[in-house]
Amino acid sequence: MTLPLVLFVMASAAYGQDYKLYKVYIYNFTKYIQWPTDKQSGDFIIGVVGKSAMLEELQSIAASRTVGSQKIVIKEFSNATDVDNCHVVFIPSNKSNLLGELSTKFGNKPVLIITEKTGLGKQGSNINFVLIDGKLKYELNKEAIEKTGLKVSTELTKLAIMING
């Protein structure tokens, strides 16, 4: 099944905040984003800021999947200062106040920042989950992603709500 079809089917079934669905989206994002060569070896690290049910969901994916040839490692960080050496950082809504600090910290480094609170896409998140008419969708902030140097597949952008901010 192609990414667009998988994401459409999943989005159609989404109601409310569903981390089981988020984890599949995040894993699929890793397949359609290209990290620089120096980030394509060693462990593929996904960080979660704060206590979140997302941590357990991502750990279930990490137990059985890889990103290319890289083993997925999930790390929990209690605050923005501790977040380091990640490919992806997930900021749950209860820690959304840390987006600015993390965006500044990573600047133009190849780190994909994913959030889940309305308005954060325009505030600098690279990808922000939103619920529209009971369906899970995602905003992709083209400007913010371009700053990171990550290359995003057109298949991923076709399904995104494209925003600038």
Written account of the structure:
The chain has about 160 residues and is α/β, with parallel strands linked by helices. It has a single domain (about 5-165), classed as Response regulator (Rossmann fold, 3-Layer(aba) Sandwich). It is about 35% helix and about 25% strand. It has six helices and ten strands, in the order ααββαβββαβββαβαβ. The strands form two sheets. An eight-stranded mixed beta sheet has the order 3-4-2-5-6-7-8-10, with helices on both faces. Helix 2 crosses helix 3. It is globular. It starts with a helix and ends with a strand. The relative contact order is 0.17. The model is unreliable at about 10-15 (pLDDT under 50).
- The side-by-side strand order for the widest beta sheet comes to 3-4-2-5-6-7-8-10
* Arithmetic mean of pLDDT: 90
CATH architecture: 3-Layer(aba) Sandwich
* Sheet/helix structural class: alpha/beta
Based on Cα principal axes, name the global outline.
globular
Which band does the percent of strand residues land in?
25-35%
Radius of gyration: 14 Å
Tally of DSSP helical segments: 6
How many domain units?
1
Secondary structure: number of strands: 10
Indicate the CATH class.
Alpha Beta
CATH fold type = Rossmann fold
Percent of residues in helices comes to 25-40%
* Ends apart, CA distance between termini: 32 Å
Name given to the CATH homologous superfamily: Response regulator
| Main β sheet profile | 8 strands, mixed
Q: Which stretches are low in confidence, meaning pLDDT under 50 for 5 or more residues running?
A: 8-16
Written as H for each helix and E for each strand, in order along the chain, the element string is HHEEHEEEHEEEHEHE
